[in-house]
Amino acid sequence: MFRLTLTRLPRQTILPRLQPRHIHILPVRPMVLTQRQMVVRTLITRSAWASKDPIISYKELKPLTQQPTDEIIIIDVREPDEAALGMIPSAVNLPMSEIQKALDVKMNPGDFQRKFAFPKPALSQNIIFYCRSGKRSATASELAENLGYHNVRNYVGSWLDWSKRQETKPNSEDEDED
């Protein structure tokens, strides 16, 4: 990158008459942010979605699984053998054992996609974590927050709650909350 600067010119000089000796091209260092600076910038851009409540309920999650969007990603942090037993619709699997390395800014998005078969979430993306009972997903939420992902929510009931509610009311409206 370069920055263009002009030396002071006499008043009568007009721009089309600039001579090469009046123009100086200076190299500019690319802006490199520290982890702390990235966290501060992300806090400023934190969405109202994650600010209202870091916990998401079944009642709020259910419609998101029926009409998935690219704005919200649901991540199952169970290990692949556990996830093979069943997953929340539209969720993707990112094992807890891989979270720290996978969400680190040093992880190349192309490598991430090749390894996990879905695009690496952007720092500003809305993310919902879940696991079997809610403990690992709480840890994953905290790890993601520490890595600069601040639009993070945790489905506390996780897979146990989801599967129980699906067995009891597979096609009905879910009246009860939490």
UniProtKB/TrEMBL annotation:
Record domain Rhodanese: where: 68-167
Organism encoding this protein: Tremella mesenterica
Xref: InterPro entries: Rhodanese-like_dom, Rhodanese-like_dom_sf
Name of protein: Endoplasmic reticulum protein
Domain of life: Eukaryota
Listed GO MF terms: thiosulfate-cyanide sulfurtransferase activity
GO-annotated cellular components: mitochondrion
